[in-house]
Each structure stands twice: as C-alpha cells, then as structure tokens.
Amino acid sequence: MEIRFLGHACFELIEGDTRVLIDPFLNDNPSAAVGADEVDPTHLFLTHGHGDHFGDIEAIAKRTGAQVVAIKEIADELTEAGFENVVDPNLGGTVTFDWGWVKLTPAWHTSTTPKGQVNVPAGLLVKIGGKTVYHLGDTALFSDLKLVAGRGDPIDVALMCIGGHYTMDRIDAVTAAEFVGATTVIPCHYNTFPPIETDAEAFKADVEAQTSSKVEILQPGETFSP
Ligand code: NI
Ligand code: MN
Fold it and tell me: Which of 59, 129, 153, 170 measures 20 to 30 Å from 194, CA to CA?
C-alpha cells in the first residue's frame, strides 16, 4: 500500500487497482502536486465540507465516476446535484468494500459546504492493504482521539493536521500523536496559507522525543509505504 501526499490535507491511498483520494482540494490549492485533471481515483472520501477539502470533488467524480463517501448531509447534497455513486454514512458508521473499509469518526471542528450547507465534520479510519490509516480531518485536540484509535487494530499511519489557526497546532498535535499511538505520523494542513505556517521539523522532533511514533514529513507529490 502506498500513501501519496498531494498537498494540504489531500492524500491518495493506493493498493493494487484501488485508488482512494481523500479531500481532493487541488486546482485552487497553492501547494497541490497535481491538478484535478491528473488524478484517476476509484473512490473519493471527504472529511468535511470546507472548500480546502471539498475542493474539486464534483469535477473529479463527474469525470471518473469514482464512488464518493461523505457524511449524510454532504452525500445528500451531492445526490441532489445528480451524482449517483454516493454513499452516506454518519459518525460511527462503517462502509465496506471488497478491498477494506472506511469508518467516520468524530472531529472537533465546523463544516459548511461551498453551497452553504452547514453539517458535521469527521475523521476517517481506513483499512486498506492490511494497514489502518487514520486521517484525523480538521480537528482540535480532544481526548476521544485515544478512544477512536484504540478501538481496533493499532493505527499504522496517522495523517494529522498541525498548522494551527483552523485546527490544532503542532504543540497540541504532539499530544494527539500520543493519543493516537500510530507507528507513523504524516503531518498535513500546514504552510498552505500564511495563517497555518508552522515548523514541521520541530513537530517531528517533539513527537519523536515524547512519543513512540515516527514522523514522516512528505512534500507534495511524495509517497510513503507503511
Ligand atoms: Ni475545515
Ligand atoms: Mn481545512
């Protein structure tokens, strides 16, 4: 299984013919490694409706026919817009595939779609290629991260926001890393815009000094294989 970082909070999880694209904010993303026309996902997962996550999901879903998984209210909005291959779980719900599953977890944040619909944000636990990947979504630090991560197989890779301002900052994220207990933490949601500039190397040093997790800092376009 391969994890490709495409910039901001956008990741592609690749296993065989399965390509799961999460939070496809590409064309308006100053840090994006590729454009929305350069991806070919089989699945599109969303953590929440903010533009820096929702991004190009409609254009990509339309072009590729990829199956979309988003929380009920966002899924309903996409279905009403004419998309047919949409699955609508809610927090705590799991959607299974022939290659694995995705579960929606709580995230402490807000969420509004580009059309103005207010809804509830999520994190995503994904089982793919025998690995458990936890995209925390946009979130503040909260102690139930520990509960979510401790409920099943240990987390192999955590995709974790560290930029502050709109989410937890790199200091709170060290405690989040401790709660999640992943083998590897990949930081995201930083340096895309001035308000979320932060020092990822300092985050790496703190996590590796204070927890048992390792930190892999990926530049947009780089991949990691757990
Ligand atoms: Ni957000
Ligand atoms: Mn965001």
Answer: 59
Domain ranges of the chain: 2-217
Q: Please tell me the distance between residue 138's alpha carbon and the centre of ligand 2 in angstroms.
A: 6
This prediction's pTM = 0.98
Q: Distance between terminal CA atoms of the chain? A: 7
Q: Are 67 and 73 in contact (CB under 8 A)?
A: no
Residue labelled with tokens 């089989």: 42
- Find the 16 Cα to ligand 1 centroid distance in Å: 30
In contact, 41 and 21? CB cutoff 8 Å? yes
Fold of 2-217: Metallo-beta-lactamase; Chain A (3.60.15)
- At 171-208, the pLDDT tens digits run 999 999 999 999 999 999 999 999 999 999 999 999 99
How many Å lie between the centroid of ligand 2 and the Cα of residue 150?
A: 25
